[in-house]
Amino acid sequence: MSTKIFVAIDTPSLDAARSLALRVRHHVGGLKLGLEFFLANGQSGVRDLAEIGLPIFLDLKLHDIPNTVAKAVQALRPIEPAILTVHAAGGRAMLEDAKAAAPAGTKVVAVTTLTSLDSDDLRSVGVPGDPRAQVMRLAQLAMTAGIDGVVCSGKEVAAVRAAWPKGFLVVPGVRPADSARSDQKRVVTPREAADAGASIIVIGRPITQAADPDQAARAIEATL
């Protein structure tokens, strides 16, 4: 891919998503499509955007019993996403079954701890310790399960890279130095994430809500 940047296109509108993707396509390495887009447009919408020629990161964060997740991944096989997310908290059997069900060309990566969560949030759901400890625990589980990598914040990616040199590490919650954090709590700049070992970085609002998305993507790309 030409750049590590995947732009997060979080909109239910297929026309808006296509327009945005066409504007930024020369300065990003792929398109991240999440629940909002997928539930509104389904597999046909994903195919439509795939025609632009950029890799598709399908961020559905699947989390259920192993058999259900495996069948869900099998149902997605026709669109062959470049990257697909599941939740590491689903356990080893679920991770193994998700990878086994995925097309050969699809990287299955496990979400460790959402970048919108901090220590207080984790304690409120019964997870002791800080986010880093939880990320490292789940990254080890994902590596043992034989999937391709994990999603973690830029605060933890260096430690995960040291423990998993060949892992495919996705870093969301990335914000340029002059950008608002919005609902993200554990953030780093694009350059910090890349230098720390991110395989790809995911950037949404700093590009998608900019007055000129193409210029915003170009400016971020230049920092890398």
Short description:
The protein is 43% helix and 17% strand. It is an alpha/beta fold and 224 residues long. The chain has an eight-stranded parallel β-barrel with strand order 1-2-3-4-5-6-7-8, surrounded by six helices.
Characteristics:
alpha/beta, single chain, eight-stranded parallel β-barrel, 224 residues
CA-CA gap between termini: 14 Å
Strand portion, in percent?
15-25%
Rounded to an integer in angstroms, the radius of gyration calculated over CA atoms is: 17 Å
Integer average pLDDT: 91
Identify the strand order in the major beta sheet: 1-2-3-4-5-6-7-8
Judged by helices, strands and strand pairing, the structural class is alpha/beta
Shape: globular
The percent range for helix content is 40-55%
Outline the biggest β-sheet.
8 strands, parallel, barrel
Detail the poorly predicted runs. none
Total beta-strand segments? 8
Count every helix, treating DSSP H or I runs of 4 or more residues as helices. 10
SSE topology string:
EHEHEHEHEHHEHEHEHH
